[in-house]
Structure to design on (392 residues):
C-alpha cells in the first residue's frame, strides 16, 4: 500500500475512539457495489455500509438531490416549516402506510423515540423485546438489546424491559399484560444472526398487542428499504405496526432516522420530544431521492430474486462440514458456520470480497441491491472456495 495511506491509517489508529475493531484496510472511494483502497484495488462490497448502502455508493440520483439541496438550504430545525421536509414526510408516510413521522439522525435515536412515544401514548412503562434482538447502543436502545457483552458494562439500564425468545408466540403471550407499553421486534433479526420471523409470528404479535392494549414497534432499521425483497420486511408478513423505526438505507447513505407512527399513536403533544438535526432539508432531499429510486426501479424485485437464487445455491454447494445453516430473506443473508466467522472474513478480504459477521459464527451478506450479477456470483464463489478450504 502507498506510504501516505499507511501514515493516515496510523494517524487514525492514534486518534480514533478505539471502540471499533478496525480492519487493515483504508477505503477511499466507492461506486455502486464496488469499494476501492488507496492503491486502487477493487473490492466487492457485501458489507453495504452495514446496511446503509442499499442503493450502492454515491447513487447518482442521491448525489444530484444533495447537490441541489445543499445550495438551497442545509439546516432548518422543525420549529419552521420547510417544503423539502413537507414533501418527504408525506411520501414516506404514504410508502409506509403510516400517518405521521418523527425524523431524527440515527437508528438508535429512532428506537429511543419509539420507546418514549410508546410510554407517552399508553401511560404504561413495560417493554417486551426479544432475545438475540439488536436495537442500538444508546441507553434506551441498549436496554432493549439482548447481547450481554454490549449491555453489562453499562448497567443499570432502564427498568421495565423484559426479553422473550424470538419466534415463540406462547412466551410472548405470557409476557403481555396491561403494564406493557410496547413489544419491539425486528422482522428479521440482523445483528443477532440473521433469523427471519417464522410464518405467523408477527401476525400473532400484532393480535396479542391489540388484546393487551400494547403498541407493536417494528425495528426495520436493517430490514427496510428493499433489503429483504419488499420495501419493508413486515409487508411479507402482512402486518401493520403501530410504530416503525427506520434508519440505515433511508437516505442513500446520508445519516437519518425516522419513527413512523400509525393511527393508534396519533399526534404527539407539543414539546414532548425533539432533535436538532431531525428533518434536515439535506437529509430529506436524499431520502426523497432514495425512496423514488426504490419505488420506481427494479431494486426491490432484484433483492427478492437474486437473494432467492443465491441462498438456494449456497444451501446446495457449501460444505456441510463447515456450515450449519443458510438463512435470510432477499439480499439479507446469514451463513451460520460451525467455526468462527473472523478467519473466513479475512480470507474473503484477501480475495477482494468484503462481508460482515453477525455474532461470532455467522457470516452476513448485505450487498448493495444495485450489485452487478457478476460481482454477486464472484462473491458467492469466493465464499464457497474459502469454506471448502476451511472444511479441508
Ligand atoms: C443498526 C441497527 C440499529 C442501530 O442503528 P444506529 O444507526 O447504528 O444507531 C438498530 N436496530 C437495528 C435492527 C439495526 O440493524
Amino acid at each position: 500500500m502507498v506510504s501516505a495511506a499507511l501514515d493516515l491509517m496510523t494517524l487514525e489508529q492514534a486518534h480514533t475512539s478505539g471502540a471499533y475493531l478496525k480492519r487493515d484496510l483504508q477505503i477511499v472511494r466507492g461506486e455502486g457495489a464496488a469499494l476501492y483502497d488507496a492503491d486502487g484495488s477493487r473490492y466487492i462490497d457485501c458489507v453495504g455500509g452495514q446496511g446503509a448502502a442499499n442503493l450502492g455508493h454515491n447513487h447518482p440520483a442521491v448525489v444530484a438531490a444533495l447537490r441541489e439541496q445543499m445550495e438551497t438550504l442545509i439546516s432548518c430545525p422543525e420549529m419552521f416549516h420547510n417544503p423539502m421536509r413537507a414533501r418527504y414526510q408525506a411520501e414516506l408516510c404514504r410508502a409506509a402506510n403510516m400517518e405521521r413521522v418523527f425524523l431524527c439522525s440515527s437508528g438508535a435515536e429512532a428506537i429511543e423515540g419509539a420507546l418514549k412515544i410508546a410510554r407517552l401514548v399508553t401511560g404504561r412503562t413495560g417493554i417486551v423485546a426479544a432475545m438475540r434482538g439488536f436495537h442500538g447502543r444508546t441507553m434506551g436502545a441498549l436496554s432493549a438489546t439482548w447481547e450481554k457483552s454490549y449491555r453489562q458494562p453499562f448497567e443499570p439500564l432502564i427498568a421495565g424491559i423484559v426479553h422473550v425468545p424470538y419466534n415463540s408466540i406462547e412466551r410472548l403471550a405470557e409476557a403481555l399484560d396491561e403494564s406493557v407499553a410496547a413489544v419491539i421486534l425486528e422482522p428479521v433479526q440482523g445483528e443477532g444472526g440473521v433469523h427471519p420471523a417464522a410464518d405467523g409470528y408477527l401476525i400473532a404479535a400484532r393480535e396479542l398487542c391489540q388484546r393487551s392494549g400494547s403498541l407493536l414497534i417494528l425495528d426495520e432499521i436493517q430490514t427496510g428499504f428493499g433489503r429483504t425483497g419488499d420495501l419493508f420486511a413486515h409487508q411479507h408478513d402482512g402486518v401493520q405496526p403501530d410504530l416503525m423505526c427506520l434508519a440505515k438505507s433511508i437516505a442513500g447513505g446520508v445519516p437519518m432516522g425516522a419513527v413512523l407512527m400509525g393511527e393508534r399513536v396519533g399526534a404527539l403533544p407539543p414539546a414532548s420530544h425533539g432533535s436538532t438535526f431531525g428533518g434536515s432539508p439535506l437529509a430529506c432531499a436524499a431520502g426523497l431521492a432514495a425512496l423514488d429510486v426504490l419505488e420506481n426501479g427494479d431494486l426491490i424485485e432484484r433483492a427478492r430474486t437474486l437473494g432467492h437464487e443465491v441462498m438456494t445455491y449456497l444451501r446446495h454447494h457449501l460444505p456441510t462440514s463447515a456450515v450449519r445453516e443458510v438463512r435470510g430473506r432477499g439480499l439479507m443473508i446469514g451463513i451460520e458456520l460451525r467455526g468462527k466467522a473472523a478467519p473466513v472474513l479475512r480470507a474473503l478480504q484477501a480475495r477482494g470480497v468484503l462481508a460482515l459477521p453477525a455474532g461470532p459464527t455467522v457470516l452476513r451478506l448485505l450487498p448493495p441491491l444495485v450489485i452487478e450479477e457478476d460481482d454477486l456470483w464472484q462473491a458467492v464463489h469466493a465464499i464457497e472456495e474459502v469454506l471448502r478450504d476451511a472444511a479441508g
